[in-house]
Amino acid sequence: MDAKESVTLYAPNLHLFAFHLWRGLTGDPDSLAPNPQYLWQQGDEILARLGFTERLHLYGYPEKSAEPIGSEVNLKQNQQLKLTGKLGNLSHNDLTITGRVLTYRLYDSYGLIVNLRRPELEHGQKTAEVPISLWRELNPEPGIFLPNFVQSSLGQTLLLTAFFSESEHNSAANAANAANDAKLEQFAQRCLRQLIPAKKNRPRLEKVGELFGSPIFEFGGQILDLDIYNEPERDAHVLVWLFREDLPSAKFVDAYRQFINLFYYRNKIVSAYGETRRLYRKTYQIYIQLEQNVKLFKESLTQDSDRPQLSEAELDRLKEVLKKLSQLDLEYARLLRNYKHSRNTIAINAKNYQVSLDNILRQLQEKDYAVQPSDLDFFRELTDRTCPYFQTRISDELNYFIEGSNLADKAIASIRGIVEIEQTQRDHLRQNQEKHLENTIQALGIAIGTGAIFASSAGLITEPWRSPWDSDRSDYPHPFIIAFVGSFAIAIIVYGLVKLGQWLNKPKSQ
């Protein structure tokens, strides 16, 4: 064993707060968890890896059944799954480990809370201190309490609590007025190293403070957004809370349900911000494509500016650019909508987070604990500084991207205008050509018809003409006149009958 493992703890507790999306608020398939019950499956796997025989049996899992109605619902019929046993993987297998599993549906999400602990008392007697290596044995390979194994879609928080051992208590007491004391930090780092042996997976120390008068250390829990080319990652979020006395532990236990909500809203906030980092990459890529297409359009417009009219091929090319720009602009608008939705999610859950802090304070005051708002200052940084930073950054990025959307809209409007003008000119020219052709056909038809009538009547011209004063005059006009006039009269009558038939058979819609 490492010499550092000789350090001991009293009544250590491991708390997993994991949250998984149950359904999306927007109806967007991308926002839906592909397997909402995956979190319960991982809960059962954790129990199996630790050697417990108990399994989750919830409303709706593993058998399909209706879940209770409500926004915050306990999905376990007996409220919680109690655990008691000796973990099979422990080298100190004579140690009794107790714990419980809580399962909730919280609005649009599921929450899995696992607590494993070494009891403070056994048979009415104070339990013995345990080696700090217990953290490693509670989290066996491949790190069953770490994000890579649990894979909850909304993230997780892992809280380690313990009382100082007698050997450490005196030195901790000397540091009671300085939570950043190097000895305390070193102690918390030892706990983290036992929990996560691999240095590459170990999150860095982000914050040090006090909670109810006892030192607490925050490791990780950040969105690792290193460059534009790689997807952002989220490192493990681990809190190490070291109790100097019983009171902080008692306060935590009495406000446990509200702490679940607190960690839930925190993970919702960080998860929404992580989603904006992914959206930023997708939006930026489409923004570049929009700019490239707009640039090509401008270059084409400059080349064609001296031409009185675009060719058919050039017009078809403009239509293709218009189609591509419209498709990109539609996807761009969808991403911007999701961007704004994530920003709203952060704002809403920041308020809920603050309400949870107020509820913790009020609930403890109702139980006659002497607590003040400043006792929870460790958690207030999220809403006081972090969330405003998230909102400012997202707003700045949105303002930048909205300019790209306006540019695309103007380009699309310009192309549509050019296409419509060109199409109108072509339609007008086509109408003139059709009218000219129609007039030509009409003139030819009249000429041919007249010529045909004349040709059919021309033979009668040779018939003898008689003057009205001749004694042998006829009572009828000359045959040529009769044939010529009669032909025109019959043509007019037939034309009228055809037009009447067309009018009677015309569809009602016309």
List keywords for this structure.
52% helix; 3 domains; single chain; alpha+beta; 14 strands; 510 residues
Question: Can I get a quick summary?
Answer:
The chain is of the alpha+beta class and 510 residues long. The protein has helices at residues 38-49, 134-138, 147-150, 166-174, 182-195, 246-254, 256-303, 312-366, 377-457, 479-504; strands at residues 8-21, 72-74, 81-85, 97-106, 109-117, 121-122, 125-126, 130-131, 156-164, 205-211, 214-220, 223-224, 233-234, 237-243. The strands form 3 sheets. Strands 1, 2, 3, 4, 5, 8, 9, 10, 11 and 14 form a 10-stranded mixed β-sheet that branches.
> How would you state the average pLDDT, rounded?
82
Radius of gyration: 42 Å
- Number of helical runs? 10
> Roughly what percent helix?
40-55%
Report on the biggest sheet.
Answer: 10 strands, mixed
Q: What oligomeric state best describes the polypeptide chains here?
A: single chain
Q: Tally of extended strands?
A: 14
What structural category characterises the helix and strand content?
alpha+beta
Low-confidence stretches: none
H/E series, N to C? EHEEEEEEEHHEHHEEEEEHHHHH
End-to-end distance, in Å?
95 Å
The percent range for strand residues is 15-25%
Overall geometry: elongated
Q: Into how many domains do the coordinates divide?
A: 3
